[in-house]
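Please review the protein record below. Let me know how this chain folds according to its tokens.
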Amino acid sequence: MHKGWEISTEFVTANRFKKFASKYPREFASCGANAERLLADLQSGIPLSALAQNLSFFRSEREGLYRIGQTNVPGAKESRLYIYPDDASKVIYLLDIGTKETQRNDIASARKTIREIRRQFDQT
């Protein structure tokens, strides 16, 4: 096992996650389980690029932003957990969570946060 990868909640708006978890508990749990699966796969040495091609719940939103969707939740509200996996530091930054209806604003906000993270850690 390669280990090394970890999840950071440093840039999460806790209240938003708490509200989402309260309103959509099954979807929240599924997105969390899928994030754990992604983390385990990265820790086992599978490259990020391969995972983006092979995991149905994991999609690129470009510019370093990815989304994790819910799976196996009958009648679920389409949900997305937005993350920034930084290959250099081996950190998956949790950024935001939302639904299809909030997608446009969630993506814009997450991309802004990624720019902050890159500036903070002097990455481009």
In short: The chain is about 45% helix and 20% strand. Strands lie at 6-8, 58-60, 66-69, 79-86, 91-99. The chain has a mean pLDDT of 93. The CA atoms of residues 114 and 120 lie 10 Å apart.
